[in-house]
Amino acid sequence: MPSSSGAPHDLSSSAFEGKVVLVTGAGRGMGQASARAFATRGATVVIGDRDADRAAQTVKLIEQDGGIAEVVPVDVTDAASVRELIATIAARHGRLDVAHNNAGVFTAGGPAGDIDEQQWRAQLDVNLTGVMLTMKYEIQHMRAHGGGTIVNTASNMGDHLRYPGTGAYAASKAGVSALTRAAALDHVSDGIRINAVSPGATDTLMTFLPGESETERAERLNGTIPLGRLARPDEIIAAVLWLASDAASFVVGHDLVVDGGASA
What architecture is the 20-258 domain classified under in CATH? Predict the structure, then answer.
């Protein structure tokens, strides 16, 4: 079993046996942890990432764990690229059972009156439009092939909680929460369950400020979290796995907050 940066231990090792699972943004951080977690539970995992080297590293880790994975390059902001991703999965595997739409970027951006317009567009393009496009083509495939499950990565910093200077990121992630719920109602009758997970501050590279040490990050963030520490990636992925599994078969259109009480 991999370390805590890989798979949590609360679902059986065969929970996704025979399933084909797509994880976007799986070259590092929570996406990598998600891909490893699905693979250790029997899934064939497709790594959708625009960084080929990082994606290849995730595949290597999965293969070392004894799992099966492959890379299909994708730019989630480009409709043609996303359409080709889903078409490639269908051609190679004939099915797509689960998708974890996790690709995202974060730039603090500054106060609303000073938001850099390029940073605004970049965050909405990846975080919100990227989720819309991946869901669109995943849904089209799943609708024609008997259904499936989709989990989108939103954030507690959006629909649930806000910090000064993060308006662009918060807007993009609040949009993911709203889009998830709308899509869930649109497509539950197609046999597709759609939910979101909203992580709080997590021990990944995304939570570091430029040049910041682990100690400095802890001093900045730990006091904002009632549990007194950042989440481990596996603690977030435990929620993703549950939402994607048959154990959550009656859960539709939910945004599951996993943030140590920060937004309670």
Answer: 3-Layer(aba) Sandwich (3.40)
